[in-house]
Design goal:
Length: 266
């Protein structure tokens, strides 16, 4: 079944929503400075940058000393690879338009991350969207063949889920309808393709996000997750231009955007 690129059943690009960022509790910072007899001002606008600077200056009690701007201070953090300071800056991103195949790779990033993903046990995937692999987006004939397979899988899931629900009802008539649906879906989901679109809520600190972007934004990474890494880089550079000042989105020789990190493995 051939479809047009605008077909809402198919997704070609990931979306990144910055749904959570930190705030600075100014009163408590002032109380700490007063109690310790310290002076501290910063030109940083993003709370994440202020907190990273406070964390770093706490290590050496260097409040009011040395580098004057937050950009200069965090640049020194990056060049000296004092990456633990960056673990205090945290963002929550909601990712959509990504495949189960992608999230299988994404959740391998454990340190510094937390995940909450759409459940195929509770959510009916009869009308699920599917993520078109980037390679098939380049070839209409291959995409059409791929979509034919997906539509067969979609129909098979519907039929199997319905038949399974009937079996569960017969076997456990006392079971609540919600539980019967869950049992049916958790069995039927076993035939869903990895291309099934999912939504995942990810919380990560800036050190973890930098590691993700460096590895997955590489031209050697899987193309789908590379596209996601590029979108994450664009979003977080807007959130914190100082923490991610050495992160660059550029066009690779393969004509696709990639991510380059000047200070590797901070």
């Amino acid at each position: 079944m051939a479809t047009t690129p605008s077909d809402s059943r198919y997704v070609t690009e990931p979306k990144v929503y910055v749904v959570g960022r930190q705030t600075v509790v100014e009163e408590e910072v002032s109380r700490f400075l007063s109690d310790e007899g310290l002076l501290f001002t910063t030109d940083a606008r993003a709370a994440s940058e202020v907190l990273a600077e406070i964390a770093g200056r706490t290590c050496y009690l260097s409040f009011g000393k040395g580098r004057k701007t937050n950009k200069e201070y965090l640049e020194n953090i990056l060049t000296s690879k004092h990456g633990s300071v960056l673990e205090h800056a945290v963002w929550c991103l909601l990712l959509t338009g990504v495949s189960r195949s992608l999230t299988h790779e994404l959740v391998r990033h454990r340190a510094g991350f937390g995940y909450s993903q759409l459940s195929q046990r509770y959510v009916d995937e009869s009308e699920a969207r599917y993520v078109v692999p980037p390679l098939y987006q380049e070839n209409p004939e291959l995409r059409a063949r791929w979509e034919q397979v997906i539509e067969r899988a979609r129909q098979a899931y519907r039929e199997l889920a319905e038949a399974t629900a009937a079996f569960v009802q017969q076997k456990h008539p006392e079971m609540a309808p919600r539980d019967r649906r869950k049992w049916a879906r958790q069995a039927a989901r076993s035939i869903l393709p990895n291309a099934c679109e999912t939504k995942i809520f990810v919380t990560g600190n800036s050190r973890a996000w930098r590691h993700f972007m460096e590895l997955r934004g590489s031209p050697h990474a899987d193309t789908e997750i590379r596209r996601l890494a590029v979108e994450v880089a664009r979003a977080l550079k807007k959130e914190s231009p100082n923490i991610f000042q050495d992160v660059e989105v550029y066009l690779e020789a393969d004509s696709l955007p990639a991510v380059r990190v000047q200070h590797s493995k901070v």
